[in-house]
Design a protein that fits this description.
single chain; 181 residues; alpha+beta; 4 helices
């Protein structure tokens, strides 16, 4: 799978393993994604937000973006921010990096510091050359902070899907038309 040009293969696999550990810690077993399996699929792109520290990098947030040429929809299939670092802007930086990779603002495939300089994003793509007309994601209706963050990024609620995650746990389908960005 595509990886960032500044990451060695072992660095990439180590980063995927760290994301998988965070996935298992944050999500219930029934909702945990097998990242290694997902990232082997075509058009699945891993994005990470790191805080660069001496001597290493701290994983704050990661996500998976799945653009489709078939229906011209890009789906954000996973967004996960370490609970220890929520509220610092890492999740929003992650989502905005995904949007930038879809052509919504300039982003190259190198380390990309945020406007505040606090974070670095790594993704394996510099600009997805697809005709994407809509960007979608699902979010638990109980995750108020996440819903507010997606709204700040330009997403709007399209519908509510009852029992999406489990009995009594609904999801919002949120979307953004590329014409709106």
């Amino acid at each position: 799978h595509e990886r960032h040009p500044l990451l060695s293969t072992s660095d990439y696999h180590g980063l995927v393993a760290r994301c998988q550990q965070l996935e298992r810690r944050v999500f219930p077993k029934a909702e945990a994604m097998d990242l290694c399996k997902e990232l082997r699929k075509p058009n699945q792109y891993l994005f990470v937000v790191l805080q660069i520290n001496d001597p290493g990098m701290l994983l704050l947030s990661y996500g998976v973006l799945a653009p489709s040429k078939v229906d011209c929809v890009a789906r954000i299939t996973k967004v996960c921010t370490d609970p220890l670092y929520r509220g610092l802007g890492a999740g929003e930086h992650l989502v905005r990096s995904m949007l930038a990779a879809l052509g919504h603002s300039a982003l190259d495939s190198a380390l990309h510091p945020s406007a505040t300089g606090r974070f670095a994003s790594i993704c394996g793509v510099g600009g997805l050359r697809m005709d994407i007309r809509d960007i979608q994601l699902h979010v638990d209706t109980r995750r108020d902070a996440a819903v507010r963050m997606y709204t700040r990024c330009g997403f709007r609620t399209k519908t509510t899907i009852p029992n999406y995650y489990a009995e009594g746990r609904d999801a919002l389908l949120m979307s953004m038309s590329t014409a709106m960005t």
